[in-house]
From TrEMBL:
Any matching Pfam family: Alpha-amylase
Organism for this UniProt entry: Umezawaea endophytica
Protein name: Alpha-glucosidase
Family: Belongs to the glycosyl hydrolase 13 family.
Higher taxonomy: Bacteria, Bacillati, Actinomycetota, Actinomycetes, Pseudonocardiales
Domain Glycosyl hydrolase family 13 catalytic: 14-426
Entries under CDD domains matching the protein: AmyAc_SI_OligoGlu_DGase (cd11333)
Domain of life: Bacteria
Amino acid sequence: RPTAPWWTSAVVYQVYPRSFADSTGDGIGDLVGITSRLDHLQRLGVDVVWLSPIYLSPQADNGYDISDYQAVDPVFGTLEDFDRLLAQVHERGMRLVMDLVVNHTSDEHPWFVESRSGKDNPKRDWYWWRPAREPFTAGEPGAEPTNWESFFSGPTWTLDETTGEYYLHLFDRKQPDLNWENPEVRAAVHEMMRWWLDRGVDGFRMDVINFISKHPELRDGPTTGTGGLGNGFAQFATGPRVHEFLQEMRREVFAGRTGNFLTVGEMPGVTWEDARLFTDPARGEVDMVFQFEHVSLDHGPGGKFDPKPLDLRDLKASLGRWQTALGETGWNSLYWNNHDQPRVVSRFGDGSRESATALATVLHLHRGTPYVYQGEELGMTNAPFAGVDDLRDVESLNHFHRAVEAGQDPEAVLTALRAMGRDNARTPVQWTADHEAGFTDGTPWIAVNPNHTWLNAAAQYDDPHSVFHHYRRLIELRHTRPVVAVGDFTMLLADHPHVYAFERRLDDVRLLVVANLHGTEQTVDLAPEWAGATAVLSNTAGHDVDASRAILQPWAALVLELT
Ligand code: TEU
């Protein structure tokens, strides 16, 4: 067997700096705060820290709108603070991966400021500029060059008065899309990436990187959007040159460097067929991708803000398909949570410790690289937002205002936002039961979840049955058992509505994972050979395995081993 890359047995921890730890009392997390909490990560045992954006930014999308890629935003600290964090992470034997947001910049980035200044500006072509659609006059309703709806509501085009042309922004109007067709844009991005690698970082998480190649004709999409807008997805997702651009990036940025790097491409809408191409090591693109299939299974016909209950069979079918598709060639990332998704314990669980640990067991025993999002290792839940004033996220706020303008009932819109809004993931990490959960001495930029009085890291360190210690054990299992990292995967009981079960196998070692992802007791038949197996991990004493059956208490999860 060829030696597997280091990241096949690694676990990544995502830090969302704004909400992690505040050292200054301004209510916003910062780099010094992160450095002060590295003990927590080391105790958990993670290998890699992925840092969400800390670059200079007007913060229209919490740093995913960058105005200088080579400067640290003062709200997070200084470049010296960053260097100290990086050194501390390395000293503790961990690696640091940066967020790379290069599908778009901020509209306040000097590149865009130049680009918008005139049609003859040398940087004009660094972004997507188009005149009004014939026969309309610029500014008239319907004059936008295409009918596409933005991810953050409204058209993807904004008219710029200086030249009377529109610029493209798939996200907020403060996030204009870079034109990757222009080789100068690509060279500037490569140079910036090399600058960070020279500084010592260990790789990149690449934001919406499958959107960088657009079909240059920019055609209208089917009019399935709000208010007659269209869906432009087929025109900008996984476009004609995306593989070429990623191969070029790998060559220009990583060739000749020695070190253990990690690259992961965030790719909304990516299919497993595409993912296998993106992650085939022979092609030299990215190590793994974040796919979105499994986090879209509870979206209704109206999209993410029209949620429906998850059918566990759909989840098993989806994740099982990805396990098989990337079994021989390519590699999976594994995640329930990030800063864009509601908290998994509230979404697919019932908020309890048992559901948090059962879901964690299922995810971490798959084949792939697991990602833990800050607070997930504590079982942090969605937040009880009372009203729209409690929300901060541009996506949620835009959606609320547009939906209400379009005549929807504000309470109904809020109910959907409470279930699916991104702010659920962005409330401060709950360190202690004290003032503002030990996150800040001041007033936090978004309210701390009131359940911090009992749900917090300090309380969990001393409790061997806590969610924290369960995550710690799962991470240890991956480090110590090659079968967890690189064993084969076989789904079992695919049609069972409530039990998630599968087998992992490497040579003579076999693991059986059985989890009851429901609030009622379940009984399942096991193959007789499992009667002699040893339990290597369980989240409850309340399970019972005899020769042929397992009786599973609500949310019970267990891992059995046969050698
Ligand atoms: O997200 C990309 C993305 O398409 C979605 O997950 C997005 O968050 C939205 O919820 C779609 O409904 C990435 C970042 O992770 C996100 O935080 C940024 O807002 C976005 O790109 C733009 O940079």
